[in-house]
Specification:
By secondary structure, chain A is α/β, with parallel strands linked by helices. The first copy, chain A, has helices spanning 5-9, 24-36, 80-90, 108-123, 163-175, 194-203, 220-233, 245-255, 262-272, 280-292, 309-320, 330-338, 360-372, 396-400, 427-446, 455-472, and strands at residues 14-18, 41-45, 51-52, 55-56, 70-73, 94-97, 127-129, 135-137, 156-160, 180-185, 209-214, 236-240, 275-277, 301-306, 351-352, 378-383, 413-417, 451-452.
Chain lengths: 473, 473
């Protein structure tokens, strides 16, 4: 059990949303909590309403009858000091300030107000998340900040300085089957900062993999120490916003962060043993490899199911990403010959099935033989939607029957979805195709396969995971 | 007018599809021709049928009553010599051999049959496209090899050694608004080879931009000369399949190509002034920049419409791609102040509107002022789907009204579609959202904007186009 101060604070008995309304972003915080099934008491606070989304609303925090542990503030900045005084009276322990327009505006009075808020909160023993952020997603506690966030928990912990990024990362990740222990957006880092969140996730037994989107570091030496400590026990993937000149200017006005140089950053994170990424797709891709694949230290890949040019390009892109696309072992070829396979002398790695002339058992046989051969460490397989000219396969069940992956469960399998050529204007046909494709993806992800939109991203993500485990020995 | 031999051959009075049937790939060639509205005579040939897709079918090519200029062969390899004899008798000028299993199998008898086919065709004065390829897409002539290919012509000419790649490129390109003069897939390059197609597109007045997917080169010195000549008159984007060891093995079994080393290839194409890409997304991204943007030689970009972290990351990714994200000029800031803009002192470049608190006129004003300021060469603007919690904007018209881009037509505008956070399971809501997003994209593409799925790909593509024009001076 973690003894980090956040541990207790993130298990509130009750939550008050100050500035709640039935629509807009204030209501936006009430609705996700309702939808996520927060089990404690939930109090909308807004003097303008007597009811918000079916819940009794209160004029001020101090009007709430029961105890209030956690407050989400979506009122304008000018009202925050008064609200903190109320919270102090109520014994509130934690405030998430969605409220913005503080130091990030670059204005002196706003920065001073921010500091005064910190002083008042400290005096009252109240801890702060934010300001200028989306706050907490903790599915096991029924806490969420967006509608539709998955209710299931998972191994991924995320701290994101940006509220936009926390939405994009959790959204993209959820669609890939990634699930979160918790995700916290922390904005201007006025009280709890990047080091606190990192320490929390490092200790947290629910978190097996840490993602961090960070714009500025308040205390360089402590951050490096914290990052090293985190990376020594769990994989850490870091995306730094504000790497160059323009980005550094942007972080100042976004979260009032002082960014450093790209070179120093890269040196620091490499030294710490952290995986350094430059965009959200890359972060989610690598996290997908970590969540779904075992610890892998060798990179000999068998690539199957591509066709023609895509097999050739797959070979190039895998090699350029650092994977070894080894030649098909002669034993496999001899075994195919023994089985009477018509293209036994032609097939290679990547195994291109464009001339198998519809003989699906051929693709199947090669996949299984590759998986059984000790030279291959894992398989990347292309999957695709049903062919519209083949009405036989134009259903989820019939099409899934093409992929008999149960027999190769002894080797890790990575999936790449390869779209069929599609042109604009065939929308009726494509709606049915898209539906089957969506169901296929959901099914394969549920079955535990990492799924990528193309071979380049698959190869790069898996290769980076392998490099990580190799370095750790 | 081009005097290249392909020029006359690609305007056939009639087409016969040998091996045609009402379903499967043979029928697959008849149906696209019907759908595309080929104006000449169309003859299915198959002794098993009297009719194919409503057209009278013939037993053999020599049974066809009228003249036959162009034959598409989708019969097995064993029947090709007999078919060529028939074609010789009929005075056929061009055969596209979809038929495969020749030299790419690595088998001696298959390679010998391929050579015999070439000899017989030469003797009869018949030219060959292929074998082992998809053949010709020429919308102005009503010739297509896939269903749903756009009927409109455009400036892009494509030669692709791979049939899979020609489908993927034309499909992805069509969705981005790219349109083709013609696209030819040429497989094993038995007769016409990469140099012939390149020379054809170089001379072709309908082609303003040449794309090439190539696996092997038959004649190195001629290829280099041809590539240089092409690049001296039109932009040429080349994707080489078979750059590494595994890819080279794969090209041999795919199109019987002998690939060279990655280093030699890179040296050759750079020397020739060609744009060298490594995957299809990159090829289509850069082609989109060339088709939609004017000749640009300076890279000072204004980035607008992002929000929070995405603005910060946009700055980083633009700079890392080679664009200059210049600071917002003071004149623009002073003008915003004069207009009474509440965040005049806060806004920068990228212009982040996350604290504009719904004041859309602010985004609008900054965009226009950036576009008018001489320091900016072009604008990258984020567009996104409507916010589900804002029923007001949840229609195409109302949502499009947010983007008043008419007033900034004096500067090139590049669009990046930024998805809203989406989680699995909200499919009903999302279907409506997706529909609006799809319509938005179609509208903006029709209006002539290059559209990218993310800022990284947008910045990289535009930067590469600018580098190309700068080099050419």
């Amino acid at each position: 059990m973690s003894t980090h101060p956040l541990e207790e604070l993130l298990h509130p008995r009750s939550i008050a949303v100050v500035g709640a309304s039935s629509s807009g972003r204030g209501g936006g915080f009430v609705n996700p909590l309702l939808e996520q099934g927060f089990k404690g008491a939930l109090y909308p606070v807004n003097p303008k309403y007597t009811e918000v989304l079916g819940l009794k609303a209160y004029g001020r925090v101090r009007d709430i009858p029961g105890p209030v542990d956690f407050v989400i503030s979506s009122i304008p900045a000018a009202g925050v000091l008064q609200m903190i005084a109320d919270c102090a009276e109520k014994g509130v322990k934690l405030i998430h300030l969605f409220t913005a327009r503080f130091s990030e505006t670059g204005r002196k009075d706003a920065a001073e107000l921010e500091q005064e808020i910190l002083r008042q909160a400290k005096k009252a023993g109240i801890r702060l998340i934010g300001p200028n952020c989306m706050g907490v997603y903790y599915p096991a506690e029924g806490i969420a900040f967006n509608e539709g966030m998955p209710k299931e928990s998972g191994p991924v912990g995320l701290a994101s300085q940006s509220g936009q990024a926390v939405g994009e990362i959790t959204g993209n990740a959820a669609q890939r089957g990634l699930r979160f222990s918790k995700a916290i957006s922390y904005g201007n880092a006025l009280d709890f900062n990047e080091c606190d969140y990192l320490e929390y996730f490092t200790q947290d037994p629910e978190t097996k993999l840490i993602l961090l989107y960070i714009e500025g570091v308040r205390d360089g030496p402590r951050f490096l120490k914290t990052l090293r400590a985190a990376a020594s026990v769990k994989p850490v993937i870091v995306l730094k916003g504000g790497r160059g000149e323009a980005g550094t200017r942007a972080t100042a006005s976004h979260t009032a962060s002082l960014a450093g140089s790209r070179e120093i950053w890269n040196a620091v994170v490499n030294q710490a043993g952290v995986i350094n990424v430059t965009d959200i797709d890359e972060m989610v891709d690598i996290a997908t490899a970590f969540q779904f694949l075992p610890e892998m230290r060798r990179a000999n890949v068998g690539v199957v199911g591509g066709s023609g040019g895509s097999s050739v390009m797959a070979a190039d892109l895998c090699e350029e990403a650092g994977l070894n696309v080894i030649p098909l072992p002669d034993e496999v070829r001899q075994e195919l010959k023994k089985q009477g396979n018509a293209i036994w002398d032609w097939i290679g790695n990547p195994a291109d099935f464009s001339i198998s002339m519809g003989d699906e058992s051929s693709a199947d046989a090669v996949t299984k033989l590759m998986a059984r051969h000790p030279n291959f460490d894992f398989i990347i397989t292309f999957v695709s939607g049903p062919w519209r000219r083949d009405p036989e396969s134009f259903s989820l069940e019939k099409h899934l029957a093409r992929y008999s992956l149960n027999d190769i469960a002894n080797k890790p399998v990575v999936m790449v979805f390869q779209d069929r050529p599609r042109y604009p204007g065939n929308s009726d046909d494509m709606a049915e195709y898209d539906k089957i494709v969506e169901q296929m993806k959901v099914k394969f992800i549920q079955d535990g396969y990492p799924m990528y939109p193309n071979i380049k991203r698959a190869a790069s993500a898996v290769s980076k995971m392998i490099s990580y485990y190799k370095k750790r020995g």
